[in-house]
Amino acid sequence: MVDMCTERASARETLWDWPDNDDARDAQFVEMLRAFRRSGGLAREAEIIQQQQTCRSSGRRGEDRPGPVICFEWGQRFWLPWFQFNRADMSLRPGPAKVLAELTPVFDGWAIALWFAQPNLWIGEQRPIDLIDHCLVSVLGAARADRFIAAG
User: What is the pLDDT, as a whole number, of residue 84?
Assistant: First the structure.
């Protein structure tokens, strides 16, 4: 998990507009905390690793499908939204993984987390995190449209 987060944090520069100061970035982090609260919130990387180890030692480990995860750095720690994991066995949920596959070519972890947390024009100004479990096709369409625009 550490390697995936580190790679994602430094793999490329985002096409998203970065805040000009720490206060704006802090405000975005608080916005993400609020948006992800209903879907399980945000977890520090160490918490995710501990939960994975607990599942592995208790025999509840899900299918081991390594793949990219939404991970970003804030406050000198790596953070991951819980909604992308099945908490019972810590496997990656397929819906969020599909959306992530659309966004990773053009956005970094911070921008992707913020993308899920903010209202999106393509889905009627609703937040992707609020629709992902019920309207995956619409969220995928929004992700694809935003990827095409960002890629130029």
Answer: 97
Q: What letter represents residue 98's amino acid?
A: K
* DSSP element (H, E) containing 103: helix 94-103
3-class secondary-structure state, position 105: coil
CA-to-CA distance for 61 and 51, rounded, in angstroms? 10
- pLDDT value of position 141: 98
Question: SS3 for 59?
Answer: coil
Residues 10, 14: Cα–Cα separation, whole Å = 10
CA separation for the pair 103, 143 (Å, rounded) = 6
CB atoms near residue 124 (< 10 Å): 11
Q: Which of 57, 123, 111, 47 is nearest to 85 (CA)?
A: 47
What span, in angstroms and rounded, lies between the C-alpha atoms of 7 and 147? 20
Q: Which residues of the chain have pLDDT under 70?
A: 1-20, 59-66
Is 69 within 8 Å of 92 (Cβ atoms)? Answer: yes
Which residues have a Cβ under 8 Å from the Cβ of 71 and sit 6 or more positions away? 4, 5, 8, 9, 45, 78, 79, 80, 109
Can you give the pLDDT at residue 20? Answer: 62
